[in-house]
Structures are given as C-alpha cells and as structure tokens.
Amino acid sequence: MSLAQIKGRSLVEPEDFSLDEMENLFNLAEKIEKDEKYLRESCRGKLLATLFFEPSTRTRLSFEAAMLRLGGSCLGFAEPGSSSAAKGESLADTIRMASSYADTIVMRNPKEGSALLARNYSSVPIINAGDGGHHHPTQTLTDLLTIKRKLGKIDTLTVGFCGDLKFGRTVHSLAKALSRYNNIRMIFISPSELVLPDYIKSILKKQKIDFQEKVNLEDALKEDGIDVLYMTRVQKERFFNEDDYIRLKDTYVLNTDKMSCAKEKMIVLHPLPRVNEISVEIDNDPRASYFAQAKYGMFVRMALLASILGVV
Ligand code: CP
User: What distance in Å separates the CA atoms of residue 52 and residue 106, rounded to the nearest whole number?
Assistant: First the structure.
C-alpha cells in the first residue's frame, strides 16, 4: 500500500485512514525528520488555507511551518473576527470560497460536526484541526507517532488518560484510534463530572477493549502498570458554568511525588497547552515527552500534506 492512496482525501475522523496508511505516514514523517532536504520544495505553487475559528498555537503554526517547509504557501485567518463569519456568513459559504482559492483546507471550529459539514461543501480536501469537543485527528497522528518513536511500538500497551475526558477531543480521537491496535488496555482517570462520553465507551466495548474508569491518578500509577500517561487540560472554553470549571480545573497535578509511583519507562504525553496539570518540575524528567510530541506534530503534518497533495 502506498501513500498515493491518500492523495485528494480529507481527514475528518481518526479512522478515515487505515492503519497501514497511518504507518506509511509515520515512516514518511521519520524520513523527513532525518533528512531536512527531503521533499523540500515539493509543494511549490500549492496553497494551504488555515481557517481557525478557535485559538491555536501548535496546530496552526505546525501546519503553516509544514507547508512552508514543503515549499508551498499559506493563507487564512487565526480568529473568526477577521473573516466574514463576523458578518454572519455561513460555514458552508466560507468553505466554498476557501476551496476555490486553496488546494487544501485545515479548519478548527468550535462546533462538533463542522469538519464533516465542511467536507460536504468543499471542492478540496478538508483536514479537521479540531471540531468542538469531538475530534482532533492530526493530534492523534502526532500522539501515535510519538508513542512509536518513544516506545518502539503501538501495541501491547496500557494507556492512561487523565483529566477532562468529557470535552477533551484529543482523548476521544486517540482512544478511538488506539482501539484499532492489538492488545491495548486503557485506564480513564477523571472526576465523575468529566468522564469519557458514552459514545466513545460504546465504540471501545464493541472493539472488546479492556478499559477501566478511575478517579485517583496516584492509585492508577501504582496499580495499573501504565506505559503511556496522556494528561489533558480541563477545557475551560466548553464549560457552561465558570464555578464548575474553577472547582474542577486543578483536580490533577502531575508532580514528582506522583511520578515516583510510575513505571521507569512510562512516557508522559500532553496535547498542550498545559495549564497546571503537569508541574514544570516534570519537564526535565526523561519520561516527559510532550515537547518532543509537539515537534513530531510538524513532521507528521508535512507527511500528511505531501500525501494529500500527491507529491509523494
Ligand atoms: N494540541 C493542540 O491542538 O494545540 P493548539 O490548541 O495550540 O493547536
């Protein structure tokens, strides 16, 4: 199977690509990382539109860096107030316009399902950079590549997800994606108000995934042999009530005491941005892999753009 099969396709949900296609993307990302000149200029003349209706640092900048490193160009907006969405233009019309100017579109939007809607109105591939609390499939590519690079495999692992599992779209996408790999156990650690949505649990049950829900992070680190700890931020922007956010925001803080309960070879991932949930004292722990993860994100997005635009 070659990357040629990805040409012209959208990425809306993690399962839009097969495991073989994702493996090919990871291999290409590693090749690009090792050889800075590889694929340089391959996208000259191509245009990427980045339409961000919600804030972003990593996703937008890594996509723009990826496109510029491939020799292509970028256009778009970083907040909706500077687009005609502020005048009431519909998402469908915005997408019709952007797809008549660019060769592919990366979009982040606060509404669940917006990426699917965009795909239906676009004449070019749509890459979902986050649709509300639903999915974030390119973060999943980043997460899986990091696990592969750091642990040498994406199977036979216990993965602990900790924090806001209700609104955390990166958790939903990664849990769904991991459910397609062999021998994956999942431990979901959250306060009762922020548990994993039922529709994701149903998918895991259907896939016969061994998973448990817990409240205490320290107990999970001591008892469950976690190989990958995926920390997440409590998603302030999805709360209806600020008092609830304030009450829940610091439920989990990963610090050196808690890390002393973890496996020596465990890796700590976080999609970032972090607020307080990982103490800065952990940043120098060799198990802290979140900044490397963010950098791998650029290489895998280069691989993705080159594949979608058909230059590999
Ligand atoms: N991981 C992630 O989506 O980060 P940004 O919100 O900064 O893009």
Answer: 8
Surface-to-core class of residue 121, CB atoms within 10 Å of its CB (0-12 exposed, 13-18 middle, 19+ buried): middle
* Cis status of the peptide bond prior to 273, with omega within 30 of 0: yes
In single-letter form, the type of residue at position 221 comes to L
Å from CA of 59 to ligand 1 middle: 5
**pTM strictly above 0.85:** yes
Please report the atom of ligand 1 found closest to the CA of residue 294: 1
Give per-residue pLDDT as tens, 10-50: 999 999 999 999 999 999 999 999 998 999 999 999 999 99
Spell out, as residue ranges, where the chain has pLDDT lower than 50: none
Using a 6 Å CB cutoff, which residues line ligand 1?
56-59, 139, 271-273
**How many angstroms is it from 208 CA to the middle of ligand 1?**
30
Cβ neighbours of residue 239 closer than 8 Å, sequence gap 6 or more: 167, 245
- The structure tokens listed for 262 are 């973890």
Q: Are 27 and 294 in contact (CB under 8 A)?
A: no
Using DSSP, state whether 190 is helix, strand or coil.
coil
